[in-house]
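User: Show me a protein chain along with its predicted structure.
Assistant: Here is one chain, sequence first, then C-alpha cells.
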Amino acid sequence: MDRLINYLFWIIAIFLFVLEGKLNEHLLILIGLGLSLIIAYLAFFLNWITLDATKAVIILGTITFGFGGIWPALALIFFFLSSSLITRNKRLDGNVNRSVPLRSDDPYHNSRRDGYQVWGNGFWVAVFCLAWFQFEMDFLLLAVYGTIAAATADTWATEMGTRKKGGTRLITTFKKVEPGTDGGISFAGTLASAVGSMAVASLLLIMPDPYDLNVAVVVAVAGFVGSVADSYMGAIFQTKNVQLFKSERIVGRDAMLKNCLVNWLATGIGGLITLITFKIMTL
C-alpha cells in the first residue's frame, strides 16, 4: 500500500512539474528533491527510519518543499526531527535498545518509522501542498500547517504521556488504564499535545511575512483537536478485536496498520478543521 501511495504522488508531482510548473518553480522542486535525498538517507543511517521509509520521505519532502514552499518544509522538518528525537530509543515497555529490525512491524515497539507511518502522518500534507500549488488558495496552505500541527501534537502526546505510570484514563470511559493504552489520555500527554501544536503554529508568527495571531491560534487549536480525535478513534478501533485486513501477507501487521489509519484520519481532521475555519472566515 505504501508503495502505491509513493507511485501515486510521484505521478502527480511529475505531471505538475512538467505541465504546470514555471522555471523558478522547477528549480525549487529540484532543490526540494536534493534536500529530501540528503535528509532521508541521513535519517536512515541514523536508524530513525527504515529503508522503505526513505522513499516516502523523499517524495513527501520534495512535494512539501517544492510545491508547498520553504516554511511548510520547515514545519515538516520540525515535526520529523522532534518526533524522531523523542522516540529515538524509546519503547512502550521502557526498554532501550539501539538494535532494531530493518522494518517495523509494531510502531510502539520499534523506534524506526516505516513507509506506512510516514504516509499516516504525511499523506494530507502532500495533498494540501499539491492542491495549493495548483489552485493557490491560502486556506489550502494553512491546512498544511494544521495537518502538521495535528501530527506533532499526537506524537508528542503519545511519547510524553507514556513516560510515567499512573494518571492515564481511557478517553471514552475515563477508566484508569496503563500508560500507552490506545485511547488513553493523561495530563502530561495532553499538555505535550497542546505544546506541540502551538510550536508548529508559532512558525506562522516568525515568518518574514507573518500571519496574524488569530491564524496561529486556529492552527494550534485544529492540531490539538486532531490529536484528541486520534485518541478517541484509537479507543474505538484499536482497543477492539476488529481485523481490518484479510490478506495473509499483512494480517500480522493489523495493529500497526490500524494505528497508521487512525493517524491518517486524525491528521486529516486537523487539516480539514483549519481549511474549513479559514474558508468560513473569508466568506
